Hints:
The structure holds 2 protein chains of 2 kinds.
Chain A: H1 2-59, H2 65-92, H3 124-146, H4 152-175, H5 197-215, H6 231-250, H7 258-286, H8 291-308, H9 314-339, H10 347-365, H11 390-420, H12 427-432, H13 434-439
Helix pairs in contact in A: 1-2, 1-3, 1-6, 2-3, 2-4, 3-5, 4-5, 4-11, 5-10, 5-11, 6-7, 6-8, 7-8, 7-9, 8-9, 8-10, 9-10, 10-11
Chain B: E1 2-8, H1 13-22, E2 29-35, E3 42-46, E4 49-53, E5 56-65, H2 70-81, E6 89-95
Antiparallel strand pairs in B: 1-5, 1-6, 2-5, 3-4
Helix pairs in contact in B: 1-2
Amino acid sequence: MTNIIALLQVAPDLTARLTALEAATKSAQSAGDNAWMLTSSALVLMMTGPGLALFYGGLVRRKNVLSTMMHSFVLMCIISVLWALVGYSLAFSEGTPFIGGFKYAFLDGVGSAPNADYGATVPHATYMIYQLMFAIITPALISGAYAERMKFSAMVLFTTLWAFIVYFPMAHMVWGKGGFLNAYLGGTVRTFDFAGGTVVHITSGVSALICALYLGKRVGYPQESMKPHSLVLSVIGACLLWVGWFGFNAGSAVAASGLATSAFVATHMATAAAALSWMVAEWLGMGKPSMLGGISGAVAGLVAITPASGFVKPMPALVIGAIAGVVCFLMVTAVKKVFGYDDTLDAFGVHGVGGTVGALLTGVFATNLVNDTQIDGKVIPLGLVDGNPGQILNQAIAVLIAIGLAVVGTFVILKICDALIGVRVDPVAEEEGLDLSQHGEEGYFLEA
Amino acid sequence: MKKIEAVVQPFKMEEVKTALKNIGIDGMTISEVRGHGRQKGHKEVYRGQEYNVDLLPKVKFELVIPDARLDEVTETITNAARSGKIGDGKIFIYDVAEAIRIRNGDRGESAV
């Protein structure tokens, strides 16, 4: 009797307290997710600067170290401005299946309220800034192909146009609501690309090949010595890429969730396996395992696991990494030699090829045991291992679209840049080095 | 006066320097140089791209000494710099016409 009286006494409060409790739970989850997503955003920016800047900077000759680092750095600035003005909107607002509209232009309506389509527990602005970091690193990856010989002015124009013609459409198709290849938000050909195998690595890698072919070989290639001027810088850069990539892949869960952990683990395992498989191939094929081989393999593994990271278990991750390491090794050593193109820092051999390997193998190993995100209200089989062999075809279609867009887009943009300002520095400036000829400074002046 | 130019293995630099100091030779100039004699270079491979590196790092000693000490000094350098393997380096000896100490204008052997 006393119990009931006690209950009645608190009853008027109960609803209010439950409401408060619900709000507190939601806010706690949002705090956790947002903390991880802001951290991930910073990690992905760190991949470009200093990660990629050091990795690429160390691989060029000393007279081009600053110009190569500038390629990465200036994109941290240019793409950010474009993204705020219209880039984010073109990639992520609803529009056609191939390009978004202007709803979020000038970041209108992109604030602290979540956008349930992209991340129900984090501010929309968090998702926007996280995605910006991907848009920055993608064109920066291409710079590996044109390093040491492209005019700075042409590089700025090229990458600005490239963002509009290749990146924003591709990001919209795969990740944007209503995008043609979107697996969850109303796509036609459902593609699984967790963190950007097609959007980031195939587009950048294939565009890199077109740049290398269009620009032609560096003066003196391959007779003159073009040894990396500081592999020490490259090792530091590659290891920063490895760490930053946890933000890239695990952050793509858009939550501090079990799926994020799963992607983190898959990313790490694939990278380790790829670094080993590259070094073993080198050891067997050329007699010695090298540090450069190790870091190249690691990057190949990171690239290949990117689309698969949120869909595969750790053992398939090891397999994907091991395959990517060997395939990319053969690309940059044997195949490149046969065709004789000068992809300065192997952006195509690592990102284009590694991205393709990863995108296709995602269709094989993706499983709803890892990722049970519902599609049309139910959990469906994902890849071949789930009994859905057709997914490999979908993945292949996405790969072909990415390749087609990159080839045509890049070629047209290069033609435009060439006609307007010329894409390549003159041989004297190239001989002198881009640091001096394009920027009027030198990376190393030890007597100072 | 004689000028001695000795090109030696970089890892022998300290030994040669100490040996010269021990016989009372204090003045010398040392520079890092690259070169090769009969020593073959080595192969480096970067992502499958092979480079033959035939100019190898060496250290060059330059010192000017009185004629009377020539044999003693060359013997000291030879002993200190020798590892017995190909690539140990060479010693070249030149006649010196004159030496001048900039601080006070001293000339000849007393200037070195």
